[in-house]
Design brief:
By secondary structure, the protein is of the alpha+beta class. 56% of the residues lie in helices and 7% in strands. Strands 1-2-4-3 form a 4-stranded mixed beta sheet, sandwiched between helices. The chain is globular, with a radius of gyration of 22 Å.
Length: 290
């Protein structure tokens, strides 16, 4: 079998991080509690004494609380305008526009069983190494910054395939769906809790990227080392660094971050057997731990 030959992806739960769905359910319940609390507080303003319940102060507070509920329609506006801006400022890939990457995206969408083909855009990242998946009415799409593309397109296609597979994982797991974003719209704003859910999503999508491109470790190495150095990094040494990334201060530093530490993401994919080294390394990869 060619290393570019695709097989059907396992069921979503097989590639999803095992802690993601339980934590998501917790965040949905918390989100419902928050919305109910906002509605209740707007009606009664419980923290004001009774003599102020019919005052201008109470009316102002009620208005502010009702304004919080406008976050949902605001989210819809952001989703639609983001796609409009992307269409107006980025290059859409097609059979004539970067056809190799376009065909890869088509093949990945088929392998993942996506019900509709995502649009793919190449954008000016202004120096930022970034890619993201998003959705608007009737459209899923992925945006890849040209900084990632320029580094990986010719020198390391597998790294770019990993990144593309990761972003399509967000679509497959419905992370960009409107219902998903509404269901955690308020709870996800809570410090520590919101970033924790985000990190679990990233772990899940890393597994999709590795499933579709098991030789794509450089897609993550690039995020750790920066441009022009990713193919020179000794992956085995970086994995060893990941195994040593433990302790209280590491955990504390991770709490507010929306993405896991890059070397930890890489190490976990190797431990799971989803990534393999693209070239012989000077040191052995870490062994599976019980």
């Amino acid at each position: 079998m060619s290393r570019h030959e695709l097989v059907a992806a396992p069921p979503p739960r097989a590639l999803r991080h095992p802690a993601e769905m339980p934590f998501f359910v917790f965040m949905v319940v918390l989100n419902i509690v928050i919305v109910a609390a906002i509605v209740r507080a707007a009606y009664d303003v419980p923290f004001l004494p009774e003599q102020l319940q019919d005052s201008g102060v109470a009316d102002a507070i009620r208005g502010a609380l009702i304004g919080l509920l406008l976050f949902i329609p605001g989210l819809i506006v952001v989703r639609e305008t983001q796609r409009a801006a992307t269409r107006g400022t980025a290059v859409q890939l097609s059979q004539r526009q970067y056809p190799d990457l376009y065909r890869t995206a088509e093949a990945f969408a088929t392998a993942l069983g996506l019900r509709r083909r995502p649009d793919l855009y190449l954008a000016n990242g202004n120096g930022t190494l970034n890619a993201f998946a998003a959705q608007a009415t009737g459209h899923d799409y992925v945006v890849i910054s040209n900084e990632l593309f320029a580094n990986l397109q010719d020198g390391n296609r597998e790294g770019l395939r990993f990144i593309l597979g990761h972003e399509l994982g967000h679509i497959r797991l419905h992370h960009v769906a409107l219902w998903y974003q509404i269901s955690v719209a308020y709870s996800e704003l809570i410090p520590i809790l919101g970033p924790t859910l985000s990190r679990l999503r990233e772990y899940s999508c890393d597994r999709h990227g590795a499933h579709l491109s098991p030789d794509g470790a450089t897609g993550l190495v690039l995020l750790a080392s920066g441009r022009y150095t990713e193919t020179d990094v000794d992956v085995a040494q970086l994995l060893k660094q990941g195994t040593e990334l433990r302790g209280f201060w590491v955990g504390l530093a991770q709490l507010p971050r929306s993405h896991p530490f890059t070397v930890r993401r890489l190490e976990r994919l190797f431990v799971l057997g989803l990534l393999r080294a693209g070239a012989p390394s000077r040191d052995p990869a870490p062994t599976r731990r019980g």
